[in-house]
Amino acid sequence: MTRSQGTPRAPRRALVFAGGGLKVAYQAGAVQVLLDEAGIEFDLADGASGGVFNLAMWCQGMTGRQIADNWRNYQPLGDFSPNLGAWLRGPWGASVLTARGLRRHTLTGFGLDWHAIRSTSREAVFELFNVSRQELQPVPAAQITEDRLLSAVALPMWFPPARIDGDTYIDAVFATDGSLEEMIRRGADELWVIWTVSTRGRWAPGFVAEYFLMIEAAANSGLRRALQQIEQNNANIAAGRPGAYGRPITVHLISAEVPLGYLLNFRRSSFVRAVDLGVRDTRAWCARHGIRTRPVPPGPDPGGTVSDGAGSGRGAAAVRFHEVMKGQLTVGETACESTARMVLDLDVVIRDLDAFLADPGHAAEVSGSVRCAAFGGRLPLRSGTLRLLTDAACTEGTEKNMTYDLAVTDRLGRALRVHGVKRLVRGARPEIWADSTSLTTEVRDEAAGRVVAAGILRISVSGFLRQLATFRATAATARGRAGALARFGGFFADQLSQVYVRPVRPMPPPPWLAVPRPAATPALDSTNDENGNGTSGRSRRGPGLTSRGAAVTLPGSGALASARTSWPRDRIPSLRYAPDRWYSTVFADRNS
Fold first, then answer.
1. Burial degree of 48 (CB within 10 A; 0-12, 13-18, 19+)
2. Is the whole model's pTM more than 0.90, yes or no?
3. Nearest to 248 by CA among 209, 165, 191
């Protein structure tokens, strides 16, 4: 059955894996959400510089979660293979590093299969720069090889150039850090760009800082130029004049200031953190734009151990410890309020340390008891959960919480919920001890829905020292047990340092990437299923939101920048943006 004349074709959607050095670990987290949790499908993709790693994994058919987990398990020191011979030549040396570490460690660790990449049915372009011919060369996936992929990340001075078929190739970042024009030329109507190059525009002294400042200048000016051309094209079409591209183009841009260096990073935990930021920010971006997401469970890790977050993985390392907190609560809701002493005697168990570290919620099981005379003495826990050092909402990682959720039944048969939070906040005078040992607690009657007691519980210095002595790990070997405790300790120290030592501060978007303000609330056609989950119309690519058209208003022109959609494609809601500066496309920054 053929489509009737005049029926608009489904827009072609392109995913742009923009470069950003090792900052593209954040991009992997965003891809996990877009591909797996939102179920968005792309017709073609482009990658440049560090983004080619993620593009290669996408071409191979990896899921978004697999791509993200590859970066969570990334060991940065494996890339560093010093070019000692070049060092002896001083300023005439070819490069600081060789490509040996990338070839033997990174490509192998990511599990790249060159036959699978070249055989992909997905349309993809790898951006290479041919120095010999002084031209940018878009290479299709069918022609990509290990040497060509490495040439795409051969950053001058840092890595040696690649010699392929008699020509010299280097990283294309100075020509493009993601070719929007190439995607448009190949028929894309919607461009989804994940941008990790810093847009702060800050000068810093030092050779290394200034080198990467040059990269930022080249990449950001190229992005800005491409967006301006798209805006002019859309404005011309809206005014009835010919556009440079012959059709309206919509851009969705996810951008962030990623807390990683472009090249010099030494801790795996930094990459876990960057990936998790990408996951969190993109979920928030989808929520703001009415795109439903459903978190997916972890898949097999590179070692073949399946982790489902509940400790089902064979050989998974576990960590447990004992914690006691004591304090006075105010009990009652009337003038006859009284005080009562409460003691939380808790056993915390992390059944799968790998899953715990990979999960942004960092959830652990809690058992034990609550002791309080006002509620009948010692009450065993019916259930308990501890979320350890998670980012507080809307704080961009500058505040973290330890959240205890404990269910008990008192002597009167009432179902009570004991909820406590330790808030870690960097103030003018950081108080790490008070923050990490003070639990603001409330006891709520679940049936009545009211708070029946509240107060603050604390850990004493002696209690904290006793708690440290209770830490135990479970693993197949003594080395594994020691490693598990070290990894947990490193996680805890790193989370504290994010707040008190090197916090990630929110950065407002620069003026040239100003965020348009929604002029109307998105209209969503949705209902709830029997489980309370939102449902809506279905399309050939899966369930999603029924769209009434994704529309973006161009600043100064009043023109619509996108046509109506019908794909899960039906996941994009009706959005209309009022004019704001020159930037015409949907933009989401975790700092907005």
1. buried
2. no
3. 191
**Quick one: pLDDT at residue 360?**
75
* CA dist., res. 25 & res. 20, Å (int): 9
Q: What is the C-alpha to C-alpha distance for residues 230 and 184, in angstroms, rounded to an integer?
A: 10
Gyration radius (Cα) of the chain, Å: 27
Calpha distance 346→390 (Å, rounded): 20
Residue 6 or 367, more confident: 367
Helices (H), 501-578: none
Are 157 and 95 spatial neighbours (Cβ–Cβ below 8 Å)? yes
Distance from first CA to last CA of the chain, Å, rounded?
Answer: 46
Q: Which residues pair with 539 in a beta bridge?
A: 542
Residue 297, C-beta contacts closer than 8 angstroms, at least 6 positions apart: 308, 309
Is beta strand 135-140 parallel, antiparallel or unpaired with respect to 44-48?
unpaired
Distance of CA 520 to the CA centre of its chain: 28
Task: Give the residue-averaged pLDDT of 430-434.
Answer: 86
* The pLDDT of residue 296: 77
Per-residue pLDDT tens digits for 224-233: 999 999 999 9
pLDDT of residue 336: 61
Question: What tokens does 3 get?
Answer: 């489509």
**Beta strands per DSSP E along 161-307:** 162-164, 167-170, 190-195, 250-255
Q: What is the pLDDT of residue 422?
A: 96
- Separation of alpha carbons 559 and 306, rounded Å: 50
Structure tokens at 395: 């704080």
| pLDDT band at residue 334 using 50, 70 and 90 as cut-offs | low
Could you tell me which residues come within 8 angstroms of residue 391 by beta carbon, excluding any fewer than 6 positions away? 280, 360, 397, 399, 400, 401
Amino acid at residue number 410: D
Note the pLDDT of residue 169.
Answer: 97
Q: Are strands 472-474 and 377-380 parallel, antiparallel or unpaired?
A: unpaired
Q: How far is it, in rounded angstroms, from Cα 220 to Cα 14?
A: 20
Q: Are strands 162-164 and 542-543 parallel, antiparallel or unpaired?
A: unpaired
